[in-house]
Amino acid sequence: MQAQNIQFKFVRNEAEVMRLDLGGGDVLVVRGDPDNASYEWVLIKEGDAVANSNGGYGWAAVAMRDGLAFYTGASVE
Q1: Which residue in 3, 4, 57, 63 could disulfide with 41, CB within 3.0 to 4.6 Å?
Q2: Is residue 20 situated within a structural domain?
């Protein structure tokens, strides 16, 4: 599935607001609704979204942080 087609539970999937190339074809993006300050992270591998947060972040940077923690296996606590 493409990141722009994901139906999030708490966030309208309006725009990509951050993108980070992780190497090897892996990409972490933050998508959401900037007008309402609501965001989700999406992990993309080989062009397909393979994981996403679906938790309703109020800050794009925090969503990116947690997406990186998920990708690396680090704890976000």
Answers
A1: 63
A2: yes
